Amino acid sequence: MQVTETLNSGLKREIKVTVPAQDLESRLMERLEDAKSKVRLKGFRPGKVPLQHLRNIYGKSFMAEVVNEILSDSSKSIISERGEKPAMQPEINMTEDEKEAEKVLAGNADFEFSMSYEVIPPIEIKDFSEIKVTRPVYDVSDDEVEEQVKRIADSARTYKPKSGKAKEGDKVTIDYAGKIDGELFEGGSAEDSDVVIGHNQFIPGFEEQLVGLKAGDKTTIKVTFPEEYAAEHLAGKEAEFDVTVKQVSEADELVVDDELAKTLGLESAEKLREIVRGQLENQFGQVTRQKAKRQLLDALDDLYKFDAPSKLVEAEFENIWNQVTRDLESAGRTFEDEDTTEEEARAEYQRLAERRVRLGLVLAQIGEEAGVEVGEDEMQRALIESIRRYPQHQQQEIYDFYRQNPQALANIRAPLFEEKVVDHLLAKADVTDKKVGREELLADDEDEAEAKPAAEKKPAKKKAAPKKKAAKAEGDAE
């Protein structure tokens, strides 16, 4: 087999491979010899079929198997011998001329093909001890725990009917029918629906208009769906709801005691408070970690500047762009509505795709050198957690799909691996904890940037709103 490099430019490589006809013939004869003792043909005793007769029958199909085997094995071995890491599966090119192909399959011509691929650039791991991360930490207060406990107690309260008008905290049982532009819309109607005034479970402005109503009253409530409403076809729309009040009920006294805890399956009110505190600390801890991770990835982005493989960037860009355009289409909006243009949006998401790919390669190299591994038990837990999002009757089918598809499993593994590499890096970086208030911890990065002195701000950029959906954690390398 002759191997010739025909292109070596930047990260791009192209290799020409020639397999002489005599090598093909040798491999074919090995297959025919092996088949001779196994094949059963009418008119011949086992093992006595002439090779030429076998060749006449199976020659082309066996040679096709030889060719496919060469393509599969040689691409891996050639790249391995060159000490390169391909960014994606090499693209194989061979003759499309039927006559040429027939000669190869007949063993009368050399087999020639070329491999095109991009390599992952060498990444030199640097000293991470100089990376500085300020980790915002929020201490959950007793008042906050008590407030959440009261919310839980409120949700467990019982109600009894009353004859007066509805007020804040009362439960109102209603029938309603929602219309947009005079037409009923899907999901906008219900009967015997319970609304607790002040729980903010309905569209903003809806519950407040129930105050002062009593059983038997009919009214029309006018509201506007939020711009970020989950059902995008309703977002920002004005609606009217024809409402009939069936019953008004008032809540029993709000009491947080051991009896309440027992109705929730706990032994005491203190145990309830302990669990609530743990849940709050875990929620705020996740925000703390994400902000620390973002700083870490920003630091890596500054440390590592290299050209990322264009095919990987192209694939990542397509993923992002498809999500963005789907979001816009679902919302019935355009790039102009988002104060940008398609050209500007493409440029911005192209930069985001390049960053993600580059950081992904950096984290992969760091993890490899650090010996970071994702255990089978971790994979199993993550897989089970993933399939729980599907209806129960589909879960076994989804589970089997993942177990039978390495690429699908790789998508489960990737975020686990990334988080473990982040843990490894945070252990090596210079991390300083900073006590912050709740609002500061929960502030978006853009809000934090606005709060910085003008000298510290970066130049403002137009941003398409869907970015928060498609790429909210811009620094993530997943």
UniProtKB/TrEMBL annotation:
EC number: 5.2.1.8
Residues covered by region (Disordered): 436-478
Locations listed in the record: Cytoplasm
Catalysed reactions listed for this entry: [protein]-peptidylproline (omega=180) = [protein]-peptidylproline (omega=0)
Keyword Transferase attached: no
Keyword entries, A-Z: Cell cycle, Cell division, Chaperone, Cytoplasm, Isomerase, Rotamase
GO molecular function term, any single one: peptidyl-prolyl cis-trans isomerase activity
Positions of the PPIase FKBP-type domain: 169-264
Pfam families cross-referenced by the UniProt entry: FKBP_C, Trigger_C, Trigger_N
Chain intervals with Basic residues compositional bias: 459-470
UniProt note: domains: Consists of 3 domains; the N-terminus binds the ribosome, the middle domain has PPIase activity, while the C-terminus has intrinsic chaperone activity on its own.
Function: Involved in protein export. Acts as a chaperone by maintaining the newly synthesized protein in an open conformation. Functions as a peptidyl-prolyl cis-trans isomerase.
NCBIfam families xrefs: tig (TIGR00115)
Family: Belongs to the FKBP-type PPIase family. Tig subfamily.
HAMAP family: Trigger_factor_Tig
UniProt-recorded name of the protein: Trigger factor
Organism: Nitratireductor thuwali
